[in-house]
Amino acid sequence: MGERYSWAVGIDETEGVITVEDARLAMSAFWTPAGQIVSRSGVVPAASEPGRVTATTPTPNGFVHIAPFRAVLQSVRGGGTYNVCLDSVKDINILSTPADPSNPRIDLIVWQQSDTYFGDANSNFTVRHVVGAAAPVPVDPAVSGSTDYIIRARVTVPAGTTDIEQADIANVTLPWTVATGGLLPIRTQAERDAILLPYEGMPIYRTDRDWVEIYDGGAWRVHGVAICTSVADRNAAITHPRTGQLTMITDIDCLWQYDGATSAWVPIGGGVPQAQLRQTATQTLTTGVGAPINFQVEDRDNFAGHDNVTNNSRYTAQVPGWYELNGGIAFAASGVGARVSQWNKNGAMIDGSDLAFPSAGAGLATRIPARTTQVQLAAGDYVQLVGFQDSGGPLDTFTGGGVRSSMSVKFVGT
């Protein structure tokens, strides 16, 4: 049969029955609300893409084909909703109006609901083809008749064409709608943020994240354990974490919990932040000037706190808390002056963190340890191992034969 008559579009006010608008307003209560007495227009979810417009296959011709669908259309002319349906594939001959020989045009496939209640000629629901005007830069044509319609697809008709290819068809991504209280599929965070007047307890299913969010009257909250690919992914995707919120970060295989009191994420399982760094390229240190030691190799860095190239002297905390620092510096041979190691936090010396040693002698590389110390870091704070020498001239660090500078960092708690 194709397009069905929508409920309700008949009217008989002579015997005290409700008007069609009364009926539509009552029915609108069954669909996802978009306000006090309006509902969310959209497609009712189905296994395939409902209402998709496709070209003829395997050999294209002038026709397009519209898949069956059910949808809800909130009237823009009055209260209530139309429950619309196409129950079989509909074929439309786009090239019943031939292509212009010189310029392209844009045609529309629209779902349109007419209603005699608002003065239309009939109360039909129609899947329509609206023909555009050819032009060097074509635009959408105006849609005549009822203003209660949805644009489902744009079909570009190339100049002189004799068939419509799938590449000529741009299906419009339409929102989903479900029964009030049902789990509403949402494709992106932007679509979620565009929901008008969400109600407390409203549930949505984020198809891009594969998780459920519920509106608590003030913000959207992720429920269950959220799976994120990285710390950065978590910070971007979970916009309003709640106290006790759990998330699994897959690139570091670690479970985190949100602490509302400190507004911080804390690792609770699967590992804690640790790094073991080594220097593999010699570094020249100016006499009398301390310099952070650069590290080019990560034997371990499970929370991505270090970069081997950019600012490679730094370990940057991803998790707030206390960290234990260890390490050592290898200096090239020189028999003059002292050798010093110290720890810096955010570019400033950590009080009581330095160690000083004399040179090991003219023919020997000098290896000196760094103090084992603990430091409290906020997320984004960084630490560095600093080397100092006063030999009277430039002096390289030493890398060779297993002798080299190293640095280790380990999270020890909050």
Task: Walk me through the topology.
Blueprint: H1 20-28, E1 42-43, E2 53-55, E3 63-66, E4 69-74, E5 81-86, E6 90-93, E7 105-113, E8 125-130, E9 149-157, E10 169-171, E11 184-186, H2 189-193, E12 203-206, E13 211-215, E14 220-223, E15 226-228, H3 231-237, E16 246-249, E17 254-259, E18 264-269, E19 274-278, E20 284-285, E21 291-292, E22 297-301, E23 315-316, E24 321-331, E25 338-345, E26 348-349, E27 355-358, E28 366-369, E29 373-377, E30 382-389, E31 395-396, E32 406-413
Parallel strand pairs: 11-12, 15-16
Antiparallel strand pairs: 1-4, 2-3, 3-6, 4-5, 7-8, 7-9, 9-10, 12-13, 13-14, 16-17, 17-18, 19-22, 19-32, 20-31, 21-30, 23-30, 24-28, 24-29, 24-32, 25-26, 25-27, 25-30
What does this structure look like?
It comes from Lentzea guizhouensis. This is C1q domain-containing protein. It is a single chain. The chain is mostly beta strands. It has three domains: 20-171, no CATH class; 184-269, no CATH class; 274-413, Jelly Rolls (Sandwich), CATH 2.60.120. It is built from three helices and 32 strands. The strands form eight sheets. Strands 19, 22, 24, 28, 29 and 32 form a six-stranded antiparallel β-sheet that branches. The longest helix is centred in the first third of the chain and has 9 residues, at 20-28. The protein is elongated, with a radius of gyration of 34 Å. The model has no long low-confidence stretch (mean pLDDT 92).
A few lines on this structure:
The chain has 414 residues and is mainly β.
The number of helical runs is 3
Look at the helices and sheets and give the structural class.
mainly beta
What is the beta-strand fraction?
Answer: 35-45%
Average pLDDT: 92
| Shape designation | elongated
